[in-house]
Amino acid sequence: MAQPNEAQPLVQLAAATFRRRTLADREGVLGRLLLAPAFLYVILVVGVPFVLAILLSFSAARSGSLSFSWVGLSHFSTIIADPQFQLTLRNTLVFTIASQVLVMILATAAANVLDAAFFGKRAVRMLILLPWAVPVSLAAMSWAWIFDSTFSVINWTLRASGLFQGWLYWLGDTELAMIAIIIVHVWRTFPFATVVVLAGMAAIPLEIREAAVIDGASFWRRLFQVNLPLLLPVVTVAVLFGVVFTSTDLSVVYLLTRGGPYNSTHVLASLAFQRGILGGDLGQGAAIALFLLPALVVVAIVMLRLARRAEVGA
Asked: What pLDDT does 2 receive?
């Protein structure tokens, strides 16, 4: 039998070990510590500029000046009456809606093709993902050559095949330039949507798909009555990300057309850059950039609720 003075160190050692073990097993504390760097990064990179943009939109701030005079809703009333802003707002809506419709159609078609078993499947998947991996600046340079007024491969192909004998000035015509930036944006973003849809299709229980085949359902009936209803939560989230990204992106427009010709292809992001950064009117640029924020918040809430209901219903 151990003496009391001999048992005391053992008790202290066991207590110390227990304390160390419980500290290491405190998942809540460790989780907060691990998330702290990412949270701090988001606050500094996203939160602070966002709050600053809101403050600038209600001020008469200009680049090169430290003055910060409060003007309220003056910038918003000015841009609403501006014909250039009205055209830009229409362009943004057309650009966003047309791009997302085409992206989801192509992504659904590509996901169904990639879901099948065929030789070279991995290589095809890699090729489809290339547009998403290519830097947008490099891609824009390539597309600028494709749409060039003299060396356009599209125009030469149409003429050589006898389908069109005229000459299309893609980046010099107001309507064709808008079509061109939509084409480039769809080419750039549909691989991401394809991966999302393909992941959703992989999550559909195999028993349901096999039951539809056994029941004699055709491809189109399986697509519209089995796959798409079950994919609705995933597709809704993919569309939400696409809408937010497209309506706030200026890279394709700025690199390809600079908003031309005649400022006819500006979207809100590119016009905000032109007025706020190049023009020096930080207040008006911030107001243009934030104009669609309330609408995007409403769209996000509605689409997330739709996705939640579809997930619960499934």
From this structure: 47
